Structure formats: C-alpha cells, structure tokens
Amino acid sequence: MFDTQPSRDELLALIAPCKGLPGPLLVMLHAIQDRVGYVPASAIPVLAEELNLSRAEVQGVISFYHHFRDRPPAKRRIEICRAESCQALQGDRLTAHIEQRTRLRLGETSADGSMSLQPVYCLGLCSASPALMIDGTVHARVTPERFDELLSQMETRE
Amino acid sequence: MSAAIVYVPRDASAAALGADAVAAEIDRQARDRGIAVRIVRNGTRGLTWLEPLVEVVTPIGRLAYGPVLPGDVPGLFDAGFLGGASHRLSLGPIEQHPYLKNQQRVTFARVGVIDPVSVAEYVAHDGFQGLREALRTSPADIVRIVTDSGLRGRGGAAFPAGIKWKTVLEQSAPQKYIACNADEGDSGTFADRMLMEGDPFQLIEGMTIAALGVGASQGYIYLRVEYPHSHRVLTEALAAARGAGFLGQNIMGSGAHFDIEVRLGAGAYICGEETSMLESLEGRRGEVRVRPPLPAIKGLFGMPTVVNNVITLASVPAILHKGAEAYRQLGSGRSRGTLPLQLAGNLKHPGLVERAFGLTLRELLYDYGGGSASGRPLRAVQIGGPLGAYVPVSQFDALIDYEGLSGIGALLGHGGIVAFDDTVDMARMARYAMAFCAHESCGKCTPCRIGSTRGVEVIDRIVAGVDRQQNLEVLNDLCETMVHGSLCGLGGMTPFPVQSALKHFPEDFTRGGSH
Ligand SMILES: Cc1cc2nc3c(=O)[nH]c(=O)nc-3n(C[C@H](O)[C@H](O)[C@H](O)COP(=O)(O)O)c2cc1C
Ligand code: SF4
Ligand code: FES
User: Most buried among B152, B388, B445, B462, using CB within 10 Å?
Assistant: First the structure.
C-alpha cells in the first residue's frame, strides 16, 4: 500500500493494464483500491479524463458501491456478518460482545483510525455462522471466546 | 513407499474454520517425522459442521477425520491416521456417511472429490465429456437438449434455460455474450461459491457449451468481491483450461473460440439482479434496467446475452454428456433435475444437500439438518434468501419444488434455507427485511427506496404499541405498494418476509408496548 497519496503518474500506471477492456471503470477502481487501500479523490479527474466521462459520473459509480472507500481504511478492520443465518446463531450476542471489547459501535471507526467495526451482509459462510472478517481474512463459527483469541492475535501482530 | 495422499479443503468455509493452518501443520509434522505426504487442497464435501474435514487415501477408500484443529494434527500422526487408524475424530469412509450417501449428487458429484484446479483429475472424472458432445452437435440441437432436460434457472426466477438460450441463438448480432451470475448475494446461500471453489472446470465447461449453443465468443463471470477464495480458484482454473486447450482459441482442436473473464462486483446486493449486473459489468452504477428489451435480445454492451446463474450453467455438462432424459427423469412435477439445497442458520448439521426435487422440508431439516443446533425447537425457516418468505413448523410437510413451495406462499429462490429456533423474534426479522431493502435499494423506484425506510419505522411503532391497529394497516398498504410499484424483485419481494412473519407469527408484533 501507498504511504502517501499516489501521484497522477502512479494512478495512470495502476489503471494502464485495464485500458483495453470493455467497460473498464469498475476494474480500474478495484485496481486502485487494491493498491492504494481506497479510491483517493485525486483519482476521479484522472479516471474521468481517461474514460471520457464527467467527474460526476465517476463519482456516482464510486458512491453506488459499498466496497469502494473514499478515505484510507482503519489499520485494523473488523467486518461482522449481520445477515439472517448469522443472526440465527447468536449474531446479536456476538456483535454486542465485539462492540464492548473494541469500544466501538457497529459502523464506527476509532478516532485515531486504528480500528473499524463494520456490518456486512452475508459472506457465504452461512453453514458456519456466525462469520466475520478481520483485515480481509474470514473466520467462521465465531464465539465470543474465539473472538477474544482473534483480538489478542491482532494485538500481538501490531 | 509412495507419498501418502491427504485431502484438506481450500474452500472458504473450511479456511474460515482453520483449514489452512491444519494443512500447514500436516506438512510440518510430516517433514519432522520424515514421512512423504502429498496434500491436495480439494473443495468441501459440504458437511460443514465437520470442517476442517481431513481425508486420507487408504486401500479401503477415503477415510475422514473432523473437525480437525491444528492442535489435533500431532495426535493424528501418532495414531497413524495416514494408514487410516482410528482416532477420536474418525468419521470412517466419507462416501458412506449418511449425509452424503443419501444425496443425489449430479452437479456436485466432483466437489470435494477432486483437486479443483487439476485438468487431469477433472478429465479422469468425466470432465469435458459434455463439451466433447456439444462440439459434434449443432447449436440448435444443443439448445433443444437443454430445453428437453427441463432445466430451469437456479438463480431465483426459475425460467427455463433452453428457452432463454433459444432467444439468444435466434438473434443475429456481431457479438453475443455468456454472462454468468456469480453474485450470490442471498444470505443462507453458498452453493455457487462451493461449486466454484470445488469444481470450477464444470462451470467453465457449462459456459463453453452455452457459447457453442448460442454462438457467443466471450464470457464473463460476475463474481461478488466477498468471494476472494473463489476468485483465486477461478483464476487458476481458467489458466489451466486455456493451457490444456479447453478454452480460448481452437477449443479441443475444433476451431471454435470462446474465452472467459472474471469481473468482480463491489458489494451491492442489487447487482445480482440481471440487468443491474449488466450495468455493473459495463462499469456503471448498478441501476436496474427497464425491461423490455430482454437481456437475451439486448444485453451486455447492447448485444444478445445469456445471463445464467452458476448452478444453472454448471448443470449443463452432465445434461450434454448423459442426455436430456437422464436429467429429466429426476425431480417432481415441473421441477426437473436436482437442486443443491443449502442448510444454514440454527441447524445441527448445516451444509449442502443435493437431491432431486420433491423431498419435504421436514426431511431436509431433521433427517439431514439434524434439527436445531441449540437443542431448542425450531420455529421458522426462511427460504430463498432475504426476499424469501418465513415458513412456520406447521408447513414443514410442504414439498421442495417450485410449485410445492409457491403453494404455501413461499419461493425456492436459490435454494438456501435458514433455520431459527424458538428464541427468534419475528418482528425483528421483519424489521431487518425492510432495513436490508433500504440499505440495498438502487434508488430507482420510490416504493422501494422510501417505502422500505417507512416500513422500518412503521414496524417499530407497531412493536412499541403506538396506534397498533392503524399502523398494521399502514404496513399492509405499504407492502402492497412495494409489491405492485417496484421495478424489480428487491422492492417487489421484500414484503414476502414481512407479510409472512406477520401472518404466521402475529404475536411477536404485539407483545410489547401499550395497546
Ligand atoms: C434483487 C435480486 C437479486 C438477485 N440476485 C441474484 C444472484 O445473486 N445470483 C443469481 O444468480 N441471480 C440473482 N437474481 C436473479 C437474476 O435476476 C436472474 O434471474 C438470474 O441471474 C438468471 O439466471 P438463471 O435463469 O440461471 O437463474 C436476483 C434477482 C433479484 C431481483
Ligand atoms: S425495486 Fe428497488 S432495487 Fe429494484 S429497481 Fe426499484 S429501486 Fe431499484
Ligand atoms: S448470513 Fe452470515 S455468512 Fe451468510
């Protein structure tokens, strides 16, 4: 990941491999977010120019999709599944536990940007509910005790 | 002595339960002990409560152990599991396990059995036989065989696949596309994921047969971004298929050309709706298109496009290989063939059960599912994802097929079933359905965009006991407006879970508050 905002040239280099593709905007946004960690505002005019779109159109696509972020992600990201199957197996209790442990409410990022807690809606792990993701890695059949283990592993990785 | 063969699934559900660490530990122990072991990362058998499920190849077949944690591995070596020795975690010959033995695995026949990215293993298990057949069959006959098989779309709408293909075949256009819907956004479903991670060549083969049938040269798999494991397996499999001459230029020496690209979604449930998916594939906001024109006539980039679900397409190779009649013979009524049912939520034995249509919910939930995981009585199941109806225990004798479920006001959808025990609060589930709709609405129609937010508020008032009778009427009117005034199923079907919860569990809405 980039430590500073990527330059125009760096952005152009990231999207260069997608240029021959039909309908490439989403592919380009993924390419940028995968490397930069988010889609910086400075990417909007670059994409608009490359694809002959208005800035508003590019902005409209970015804002439509839950996956694309317009600011750097928290250092540690917890995403907990709140969909039906996970609710059916004590997902509420697990969420309450995680909120208490992380001192974050669902949807919040800590003020120092060190951790975020977001809801997601089904990870396709419904036969092993409840499920969550930590920094992009999936965990299933998560109990409060198991979460505490994962949390302490997270802390030691810091 | 040749190396012992050990299978450890690479499927996301197994990985989320620690399978990667188990595989690493097996490798480490084997090295430390100077034993030659070959670890194959297969798909999952679909007995998820036993994952990570490790199998060893023995003279009497594949013996399973599970659920295995990394800490169990030294003990398994000590016990001699590589020779099939018994151990606390022994499950015996996996194919004799009743959960598997009593299934009819057609589309999932190879899932969990083979190395998903080995062309050689795929071919050794009847792989590419359907494609071979398709290459010596005319496009019109390919389409007719699929029509005759009775295969209906497995993504939700259950539209006959062959009829859709026929429309695309009949168009003359400079370019046609096969667009595989791998968005699998429905909660309680994971069959697409399990298939892609366990037998991706079958999907590739099915898409290629579709391309030959309708005259398409380019395919896309629209994969949800929440499935990075599937993405890795598909990427490896596509490269392997190309390398072996089963995809790309001159397929199997026939001169035919077809290629497939994976495109990732970006976390929008609505992009599973086919026209929204096409918009997204074109790089735009995933707003639903007005129909007509049908995607089969004017689809991706304005060209005739077959849009089919992963399981629909993956069902095709066996139909071409074994014939339409063999597939058609399975099933009940107008629901032909088999269906991968996905057991989720509060069940003792959650996982994947492929059976011909026509078993009852009760058989599925108790004989396979083993009843609740909590040990408490089941109270309701939701069938077919977040837009599916809630079904009470009193209707568990309904047959699982398209008509049987519509007879009780439910829809099969993609075949996911989420079970709840008697601690569930159905008013909360109804509220969740409305909130989910509000969160995922593409914003095009007012009843969906605004109505769902209103729905949340009205349910809150009902539960709080504020003007209860009046608000119940408001909720019903709101649901009717959503059903009739929405362009697509998100707004149009969100009322199903809400109204079924109200109908079957009215007491949950009137428990609290003043009256
Ligand atoms: C809100 C909504 C979400 C949908 N999500 C999916 C999905 O995730 N996967 C899928 O295959 N079909 C989904 N569908 C159904 C598709 O619109 C379409 O019917 C299907 O992809 C056609 O393929 P099939 O005939 O093989 O089922 C959805 C429909 C609606 C209305
Ligand atoms: S019903 Fe909802 S999701 Fe569907 S088109 Fe209308 S606003 Fe979009
Ligand atoms: S409902 Fe949580 S993983 Fe599917």
Answer: B388
With CB atoms and an 8 Å threshold, state whether A64 touches B436: no
B 244-283 residues with CB < 8 A to A = 261, 263-269, 280-283
The pLDDT assigned to B200 comes to 98
State how far the Cα of B203 lies from the Cα of B218, in Å rounded to an integer. Answer: 14
Q: How far off is chain A from B311, nearest CA to CA, in Å?
A: 15
B50 in contact with A at a CB cutoff of 8 Å? no
B175 pLDDT tier (thresholds 50, 70, 90): very high
Q: Which two tokens stand for residue B284?
A: 């735009």
Q: Which domain holds residue B287?
A: 119-328
Q: Cβ of A24 and B283 within 8 Å?
A: yes
**B44 contact A CB<8A:** no
Domains of chain B: total: 4
Cβ–ligand 1 distance for B440 under 6 Å, the answer: no
Question: Three-state secondary structure along B441-504?
Answer: CCCCCHHHHHHHHHHHHHHHHHHHCCCHHHHHHHHHHHHHHHHHHCCCHHHHHCHHHHHHHHHH
Taking CA–CA distances from B50, the nearest residue in chain A reads A128
- Going by alpha carbons, the residue nearest to atom 29 of ligand 1 is B273
CB contact under 8 A, A126 and B281: no
What is the tens place of the pLDDT at every residue in B70-100? 999 999 999 999 999 999 999 999 999 999 9
Q: What is the mean pLDDT of each run of 10 residues along chain A (158 residues)?
A: 82 95 97 97 97 97 96 96 97 97 96 95 98 96 97 83
CA dist., res. B461 & res. A29, Å (int): 42
pLDDT tens per residue across span B304-314: 999 999 999 99
Q: Residue B382 pairs with which residues in a beta bridge?
A: B390, B418
Contacts of A68 in chain B (CB under 8 A): 266
- Taking the C-alpha atoms of residue B386 and residue B388, their distance in angstroms, rounded to an integer, is 6
B48/A84 touch (CB, cutoff 8 Å), yes or no:
no
Domains within chain A, CATH numbers bracketed? 8-64 (no CATH), 76-157 (3.40.30.10)
Residue reference for tokens 């449930």: B269
| Residues B365, B451 within the same domain | no
- Residues B284, B159 within the same domain: yes
